[in-house]
Design goal:
Elements (H helix, E strand, L loop, with lengths): L8 E5 L4 E8 L6 E5 L8 E6 L2 E5 L8 E4 L6 E5 L8 E6 L2 E5 L5 E6 L12 E2 L3 E4 L2 E7 L3 E5 L5 E6 L6 E2 L48 H7 L9 E3 L9 E7 L5 E9 L11 E3 L3 E4 L1 E2 L17 E5 L7 H10 L1 E9 L1 E2 L4 E2 L5 E8 H5 L8 E4 L11 E4 L4 E5 L11 E4 L4 E10 L2 E10 L2 E7 L4
Parallel strand pairs: 7-11
Antiparallel strand pairs: 1-2, 2-34, 3-4, 4-5, 5-6, 7-8, 8-9, 9-10, 12-13, 12-16, 13-14, 14-15, 17-18, 18-19, 19-20, 19-21, 22-23, 23-24, 24-27, 25-26, 28-29, 29-30, 30-31, 32-33, 33-34
């Protein structure tokens, strides 16, 4: 079902949509994957650094636009279209020289750097080296206490203090939130494969943080009900960042198979004899444990309110034959329920709007008190309709995509099993009027991109 051979393309005919899977192969285990915004195309370019070979794949293609072999002392690199031909050019920075790769594998040394930069890195990394300043491209050379801006002839134009924020980098901001590093790290990599320590001063890095949402472990969630409601985990009720309404949640004992929901909202100033600024709605109980994805919250109907997703593990009524089958297949049933927010009533619907019935790896069942069984969970929009969809890995080496279209189908629109454990991230791509996503998936030494085929 997967792809055979290198750089091949296959179409997988699914229940109701046709999805395209592209494979990008690497030869070394420490290969790094980057996402580079595409100025002309609809989806990002893919950049793979495999040992000293750097390859760029244009949008919707598994054939590289170019491959360059970079010097073994390279510190960092950048990909920028400086001649407006729609093809990014490679610039590399070594301790003593800035190089520019042109047609084929040809390269030119733009200028030598004095004094020689004192840093070493475990592996070259993507960094905004070439920036637009005063309507011209310049090289931004980082030093210990400043950044030197130089033209391509090697002449110094100006210097800036340590940080590079406030300027106009041609390369856009890194993908956030981080998938591998901590919250203070700068991360362009997205394949959750490599975390490289870099001996470059942190102050020289451009950072851009988006809101990330805390994923509370089921074990921690069990203790939250005993706390004051102000200390419960919470997430914003509305997509709008200006909203002050929050959703607080806790696991309800003693079995801890249900979730309590209370909505925090500001009290209108017109209410007499009320001094507090906020009030909480009465607690409502929903069956299951809440599912939060670090990369974002779901809005399944596009009404501007985040919706509720809960998972539950059915236990009663299991016969001896079903138990034996679960032991043999190493799988166990799991139910995912979706509750939409009703803005008129000001609460989440008591009955689920949609359900997913699937099987998860039995090992996930044994660790569900400490970790959510919904591995690789994402609510990215995969079919360009502006509404969230549901993506997760029911087993370490599989991926399922469920498209939400006024509900969910009984089977996922996309399901695949890889040879090895898979990690993935949803990458935004601008298409039509909505921001939809592709899935970048890593399986061993191969990297895949999954997106809906553009058939029109």
């Amino acid at each position: 079902m997967l792809l055979g051979g290198l750089y091949s393309l296959a179409l997988l005919l699914c229940a109701s949509e046709e999805m395209a899977v592209q494979q990008y192969s690497a030869q070394h285990d420490n290969a790094a994957l980057y996402v580079l915004p595409s100025g002309q195309g609809r989806v990002p370019n893919i950049v793979i650094l495999d040992d000293q070979k750097l390859s760029l794949y244009p949008a919707n293609s598994s054939r590289s636009l170019f491959s360059h072999t970079i010097a073994d002392d390279t510190l960092m690199f950048d990909l920028v279209d400086t001649n407006a031909d729609g093809r990014p050019e490679l610039f590399t920075l070594s301790p003593g020289v800035l190089r520019h790769f042109v047609e084929g594998n040809a390269q030119e040394e733009l200028f030598f750097i004095e004094p020689v930069l004192p840093w070493k890195v475990d592996q070259p990394f993507l960094h905004p080296l070439i920036i637009s300043y005063l309507d011209a491209f310049h090289a931004a050379i980082p030093h210990l206490d400043h950044m030197r801006l130089m033209n391509f002839s090697g002449e110094e134009v100006t210097t800036f203090p340590k940080v590079t924020t406030g300027m106009d980098p041609v390369f856009s901001v890194p993908i956030q939130p981080n998938q591998v590093g901590g919250t203070s790290a700068l991360e362009f990599r997205v394949d959750a494969l490599l975390s490289t320590p870099i001996e470059v001063p942190k102050d020289l890095r451009i950072t851009s943080m988006r809101d990330s949402y805390e994923t509370v472990t089921p074990r921690k969630l069990r203790d939250s009900e005993k706390l004051e409601v102000d200390l419960w985990p919470q997430f914003p009720l509305k997509v709008s960042p200006e909203s002050m309404r929050m959703v607080s949640y806790a696991s309800h004992g003693p079995e801890h198979v249900n979730t309590l929901i209370r909505i925090k909202q500001p009290v209108p100033r017109s209410v007499p004899n009320v001094t507090e600024a906020f009030r909480y709605s009465p607690a409502r109980m929903y069956p299951g444990t809440i599912a939060i994805a670090e990369s974002g919250l779901p809005d399944f109907n596009g009404d501007g309110y985040f919706d509720l997703v809960l998972w539950s593990v059915p236990l009663p009524g299991y016969s001896a034959s079903k138990l034996l089958n679960s032991l043999q297949t190493q799988r166990w049933p799991l139910i995912v329920s979706i509750h939409l927010f009703d803005p008129v009533k000001g609460l989440y619907g008591a009955r689920p709007e949609a359900r997913i019935k699937t099987d998860i790896a039995l090992q996930y069942l044994f660790t569900r008190q400490s970790f959510s069984p919904l591995h690789n969970l994402s609510f990215a929009d995969m079919n360009h309709d502006g509404f969230s969809d549901v993506i997760f890995s029911p087993t370490p080496n599989s991926v399922e995509v469920w498209l939400y279209k006024d509900g969910l189908s009984k089977e996922p629109e996309y399901r695949n099993q890889f040879k090895h454990a898979v990690s993935m991230i949803a990458v935004p791509e601008q298409d039509k009027e909505y921001e939809s996503h592709s899935l970048l998936m890593r399986d061993g030494s191969s990297i895949y991109r999954l997106s809906l085929s553009d058939l029109d």
